[in-house]
Specification:
With 83 residues, this protein is mainly α. The protein contains 3 helices and no strands.
Length: 83
């Protein structure tokens, strides 16, 4: 059986309070910035797949979708500070 002392409970509360503060520190602009970064990374990966992995017509599709990811990332970047 596991017994909790008062120090352990206080440390747990302190830790959960710190976690809650760190989670709340990510506001809407930070979320849009991370989404923009992820979309750019995935777009580059798709364009690289289309250029280097697939030499047939499928490569054109991968590149087109990668360019679409860039367009959506551009919109996310434009929305920062306005939403």
């Amino acid at each position: 059986m596991f017994f909790l002392s008062k120090k352990t409970i206080f440390a747990f509360r302190l830790t959960t309070k710190n976690l809650r503060i760190k989670i709340m520190a990510m506001n809407k602009n930070t979320v849009l910035a991370w989404a923009t970064f992820i979309m750019i990374f995935v777009g580059l990966a798709l364009i690289a797949l289309g250029a280097f992995r697939y030499d047939d017509v499928a490569g054109w599709g991968f590149a087109a979708v990668g360019i679409g990811f860039f367009a959506i990332a551009w919109v996310f970047n434009a929305l920062k500070g306005r939403v």
